[in-house]
Write a structure and sequence with these properties.
By secondary structure, this protein is an alpha/beta fold. Helices cover 70% and strands 9% of the residues. Helix 13 links the parallel strand 15 and strand 16. 27% of the residues are buried.
């Protein structure tokens, strides 16, 4: 296998694609400095997987991409392909030619390809690993790296030897194995953490799952018993329900009969009461009508009397006025005659009058005082007098009317008085009845309160007794539960004892076989001893495993038992032959000192009881053990004994002979053989004591239940009596309410009567007052009439006196006139007389006209009064008939109302009795209905419970879950199961599934842990094997390289000597490599003191030594001989030629001697600035090229 071709494109200075075909032998790449020759070795190193930009003479990986020049732009891709000839098949890829390509984009993306197939960088590195052609291999020595080989640390220099030894792949595999081992350890740690966490959950979950399973089992058992008990209760309650339904039907039938009669009477009573109400309304209506009719009659009669009085007055006045009219008419005729006569006289004496006018002026003054007539006042008084007469007639009429009204009121008052007496009797009866009902109610209320108090006291007694019964019953069930638990625990302990649980397998087998296959077996030490409870921990600690030692009669018995275990592969056991075991007591002096020490309790053997025949066994085991109160006391006593005795505290702490101590928290899961025995014995004692207590509790509960049943019956009786008393009280209250209602109605009627009486009295009072007022008015009118009459008499007298005065004045005037002038006397007399007659005539005419009009008016009034009187008389007769009719109707209605009242009372009495009977039946019906409903509810509840809770019909439940015990026993069993469930507390039902899941996961993780442990061990074995192989390879290769280095160094230097030494020969995997060199003619000295040429040639000697040991397909040397002088370069070139038969060399050089030894030359030049190109080199131009290169 050799390097066949190198393809470069865009890598560093190679802007254009360039292919270099290499041949076997020595291939030299030549060219001026800075032309890019070394970029070829960098490209080879880069394509083989170099990751360090610094190793490629750059600052970052992007620097390997062509960065551009003055005339070219930068590229975005660097690509290098290495083509290898694989005809010999050294690379096991199945191809005769293998190409390796690496690409880098300026974006930072990379690609790796093998034969144009994408791959990983790791694949390329592993492909060339241990072939000597890797990126760090000795076969590629870049520019300036020769001195690095020599100046590097011994540990770093070791890498060259490892590559030559072919251990790099082993190191890589070891690294991978160690990485896997670390990952395995991490996984193992994670699994261990998870397991630790899960194992911490398993035990609680196991307990929870066990509790959950126990809960489910108890729940299932509880369901079975509850279903069976429910079925039994349904059957019993259905029987009660059927019997109660029959009783209910019978009561319903009786109740219905009573109810029908009650409804009939109530309907009849309602009808009677409605009729009575209608009668009351009719009576009230008739009463109002009668009063109204009486008032109307009185009013009409009064009106008639008034009309009669007015007619009479008007008739009298008419007669008087007619007489006066005749008198005035006669007088008027006379006045007319006198007037005519006087007229003649006046004409005659006219002339005389004129003469007398002046004289008469003085006399006129006197005349004026008497000139006014009093006739108008007299007429006015007459009119007033007539009005007063009318008023007097009206008052008399009104007095008669008031008298009639008072008579009517007295009559009505008498009627009301009779009704009042009836209402009073009714009220007295109602008051009597109400009083009786009230007294009855109060008595029943007191009786009911007494019954309530007695019931409460009895109920309190029943509650206290029930509470005590429940309390004792709870204690009993707790005792049952304790006995059940204790018995279960005893059974478990006895089974453990019988199965020798806790004993080692070998001991268990021997103890089981002592009754059959083995003889002479006495028993285990733990079985033979008896220890007080306070010493159990100390004895278990002191004896430890000796508790399981088996005591035999003889050594032969012990050998037989050992042979038995061997033959059956049943484990091991320690035996104590009784015939050879000896006592090991404390010395008397030490025991005496210890007994006097503070904290001493006893010697261990003295704290244990055992049969005397085997006392020496315990003295052998515990004779040298002392029990101490505290660890501090044990330490003190240990010093006293000289640390020759074992001390054990009651808590289990130990001070061993010699002074060592052990202690801490005891593991509760280990040992406990003695504690188990102790527990079993205590449980047996407690079980016996509890049995006696349970029997006493059973007797107590039985007595309490009997007493409670008695109290329950008494309570039911008292309850029924209380219900009856309450019903009677309610009935009495209803009766009282009815009686009080009747009394209220009676009081209302009396109140109404009182109001009516008050109203009548008020009317009477008003009528009396009116009579008084009328009487006073009548007297007043009489007085006024008298005054008017007197006034009229006075006025008539004054009028007469006036006339006389006037006559006197006339006579005096005449006399005076006679005295003054005779002529004028006659004229004056005639004139005066004429005036008087004219005036009198006018007044008489006026009076006549007025009187005629008044007479006409009176005539009209008389006609009207006659017509009104006739009409009033007709109305009065009609009203009287109506009043009589109303009176008769009122009498009939009141008679009917009395009969209705009596009938209503009879119906009320019947209804009261029927209501009582109905209430009694209703109470009985209600009680039975309530009981029936309760049974219905209980039956429905239990049936629904079967359906909803258990999804069972009654028939299916009855078939599937028959009750095989008594009901009371079943209830007891259910209560015990419930107590057991309650004792379990909160149960995590998910713990079962969770425990299975966790347990399964723990098992799975345990298997994984086992696999990981196995894988870990396998990796360790592989690593150890690889370490051994690397040691072997490194050691062998180093020895060979050392041998060839000694030879090659001498050959290259023409003398001198060199050697290789390991810095740590015993640590072949980490040892460094030191190079010792002594050039010819010099002493041995440190490599750093060698010249550059000496260093380079020493490194070259080392390279050729390695190649001798492990030939490589190709080797790239980048100016490794640059520091050599010509003579040494010639030696180097000739030596290079020697190895070219087996190794292909690509030498980058500008030394003449090297070029001369090359089989082919490749010229690299930079015709364009910054861009490297390969040029063809003709053989004839070689010398010139060499010259130019040098």
């Amino acid at each position: 296998m050799f390097l066949k071709r190198l393809e470069i494109k865009g890598f560093k200075s190679f802007a254009e694609e360039m292919n270099i075909e290499f041949l076997s032998g020595v291939n030299a790449v030549v060219g001026p400095n800075g032309s890019g020759k070394s970029n070829i070795s960098d490209g080879i190193r880069w394509v083989l997987g170099e990751q360090s930009a610094r190793s490629l003479r750059g600052s970052k990986m992007e620097d390997v991409i062509f960065a551009g020049s003055d005339t070219r732009r930068a590229l975005n891709l660097a690509e290098v392909t290495l083509v290898l000839d694989n005809e010999d098949g050294e690379m096991e890829l199945g191809y005769s030619e293998v190409s390796v390509t690496r690409k880098l984009y300026r974006s930072g993306e990379s690609e790796y390809l093998i034969n144009q197939q994408p791959c990983r960088r790791k694949d390329i590195v592993e492909l060339f690993m241990d072939s000597g052609m890797g990126k760090e291999a000795f076969s590629i020595i870049g520019q300036g790296r020769v001195e690095e080989v020599l100046s590097s640390k011994p540990e770093e220099r070791r890498a060259i030897f490892e590559e030559a030894a072919g251990v790099v792949k082993y190191k890589q595999r070891k690294h991978q194995a160690e990485k896997k081992l670390t990952e395995t350890q991490d996984n193992l740690n994670r699994i261990e953490d998870i397991l630790h966490e899960l194992e911490g959950q398993v035990e609680p979950l196991k307990m929870q799952a066990s509790a959950a399973k126990d809960y489910l089992a108890k729940k299932e058992e509880l369901e079975e018993h509850e279903i069976a008990l429910t079925v039994r209760e349904i059957e019993e309650k259905h029987e009660k329900w059927t019997a109660l339904q029959n009783e209910l039907d019978h009561v319903e039938e009786k109740k219905q009969k009573v109810n029908n009669k009650l409804q009939q009477d109530e309907v009849q009573l309602s009808k009677v009461q409605k009729e009575a109400e209608l009668l009351d309304e009719s009576i009230n209506t008739l009463q109002d009508k009668l009063v109204a009719t009486s008032e109307r009659l009185e009013k009409e009669e009064g009106q008639r009397r008034l009309l009669e009085e007015r007619g009479k007055n008007a008739g009298e006045k008419k007669e008087e006025w007619e007489k006066r009219l005749q008198e005035i008419t006669r007088k008027n005729e006379q006045t007319k005659t006198d007037l005519e006569t006087q007229q003649k006289k006046l004409q005659k004496s006219t002339s005389q009058v004129k003469e007398l006018e002046e004289k008469l002026k003085e006399n006129q003054k006197k005349w004026k005082r008497y000139a006014h007539s009093k006739e108008s006042e007299i007429e006015s008084l007459k009119s007033e007098y007539i009005e007063r007469l009318n008023e007097q007639a009206a008052i008399r009429n009104e007095e008669r009317h008031v008298s009639d009204q008072k008579a009517q009121l007295n009559k009505k008052s008498g009627s009301l008085q009779k009704e009042n007496e009836m209402y009073v009797r009714e009220r007295q009866q109602s008051e009597k009845t109400a009083a009786e009902r009230r007294e009855e109610t109060e008595n029943l209320q007191a009786h009911y309160e007494k019954m309530k108090t007695a019931y409460k006291q009895l109920h309190k007694q029943w509650s206290e007794h029930t509470e005590e019964t429940d309390k004792q019953e709870k204690k009993l069930y707790e005792a049952y539960r304790y006995l059940d638990q204790t018995k279960s625990r005893m059974n478990v302990l006895e089974e453990m004892e019988a199965d020798y649980s806790g004993f080692f397998q070998g001991v268990k087998e021997v103890l089981k076989a002592k009754e059959s296959n083995l003889t002479g077996i006495v028993g285990a030490v733990a079985e033979l001893i008896d220890v007080e409870k306070k010493y159990v921990t100390a004895v278990e600690t002191a004896l430890g495993g000796s508790l399981q030692h088996v005591v035999t009669e003889t050594e032969s018995d012990a050998r037989q038992a050992i042979q038995y275990l061997k033959s059956r592969q049943k484990g091991r056991a320690t035996f104590l032959p009784s015939n050879v075991i000896r006592k090991r007591p404390l010395s008397a002096s030490i025991k005496q000192k210890l007994e006097a020490a503070e904290g001493f309790i006893t010697v261990g053997s003295e704290a244990v009881k055992i049969q005397d025949a085997y006392k020496h066994i315990i003295e052998n085991l515990l004779g040298q053990v002392v029990f101490a109160k505290t660890l501090e006391a044990a330490n003190n006593m240990a010093r006293i004994s000289g640390y020759k005795v074992r001390f054990v505290t009651l808590d289990g702490d130990v001070v061993n002979p010699g002074g060592s101590m052990s202690g801490g928290a005891a593991n509760q899961k280990k040992g406990q053989l003695l504690a188990r025995q102790q527990e079993l014995e205590e449980l047996k004692k407690k079980y016996k004591i509890m049995q006696e207590k349970t029997e006493n509790l059973e007797l107590t509960v039985k007595t309490l239940k009997e007493k409670r049943e008695q109290l329950t019956r008494q309570l039911e009786t008292r309850g029924q009596e209380g219900e009856e008393a309450r019903d009677k009280l309610e009935l009495a209250k209803e009766k009282l309410a009815k009686a009080e209602a009747e009394l209220s109605r009676a009081n209302s009627r009396l109140s109404l009567f009182d109001k009516e009486s008050t109203s009548l009295e008020e009317e009477k009072r008003k009528l009396d007052h009116r009579q008084k007022v009328l009487s006073e008015n009548k007297e007043s009118i009489k007085a006024k009439l008298k005054q008017v009459e007197e006034k009229m008499t006075e006025l008539e007298s004054m009028e007469k006196e006036r006339g006389q005065k006037l006559e006197q004045l006339k006579e005096e005037e005449t006399a005076w006139k006679v005295e003054l002038a005779a002529a004028k006397e006659t004229m004056s007399h005639d004139s005066s007389e004429m005036k008087r007659l004219v005036s009198q005539h006018k007044e008489e005419e006026k009076d006549l006209e007025t009187l005629q009009k008044d007479i006409e008016i009176l005539q009209e009034q008389l006609s009207s009064l006659d017509g009104g009187d006739d009409a009033l008389q007709v109305d009065i007769e009609a009203i009287k008939e109506k009043k009589e009719q109303l009176t008769q109707e009122m009498t009939a209605l009141r008679r009917d109302r009395v009969e209705g009242y009596e009938k209503a009372e009879r119906l009320k009495a019947s209804i009261q009795q029927l209501s009582y009977d109905y209430n009694e039946h209703q109470k009985t019906f209600h009680d039975k209905q309530v009981e029936l409903n309760r049974l219905d509810v209980e039956l429905d509840t239990r049936l629904n419970s079967l359906q909803d809770t258990y999804e069972l019909t009654f028939e299916r439940a009855k078939d599937m879950y028959p009750l095989t015990m008594e009901t009371q026993e079943a209830r007891k069993k259910i209560k015990l199961i419930k107590l057991g469930i309650e004792e379990l507390g909160t149960v995590n039902l998910g713990a079962i599934e969770e425990y299975e899941r966790i347990h399964e996961r723990v098992s799975f993780l345990s298997v994984q842990r086992s696999d990981l442990l196995q894988a870990q061990q396998s990796l360790r074995d592989v690593i150890n094997e690889m370490d051994e192989e690397m040691k072997r390879r490194f050691s062998e290769t180093f020895t060979e390289i050392r041998h060839h280095f000694q030879e090659t160094y001498t050959e290259l230097f023409g003398g001198g000597e060199a050697d290789l030494h390991l810095t740590a020969p015993k640590q072949l995997l980490e040892t460094g490599v030191d190079i010792i060199a002594r050039p010819p003619g010099k002493k041995r000295q440190h490599l750093s003191l060698l010249s550059g040429g000496e260093k380079a040639l020493t490194a070259i000697a080392l390279l050729f030594s390695i190649v001798k040991v492990k030939p490589v397909p190709f080797c790239v040397l980048d100016e490794v001989e640059a520091a050599l002088d010509e003579a040494n370069v010639t030696r180097f070139a000739k030596y290079l030629r020697t190895f070219s038969q087996t190794t292909q060399f690509i030498v980058i050089s500008h030394r003449k001697a090297t070029m001369e030894e090359a089989d082919v030359l490749y010229g690299i030049t930079m015709e364009e600035s910054g861009v490297s190109k390969m040029v063809s080199v003709r053989l004839e131009e070689t010398s010139e090229l060499i010259e130019s290169a040098t």
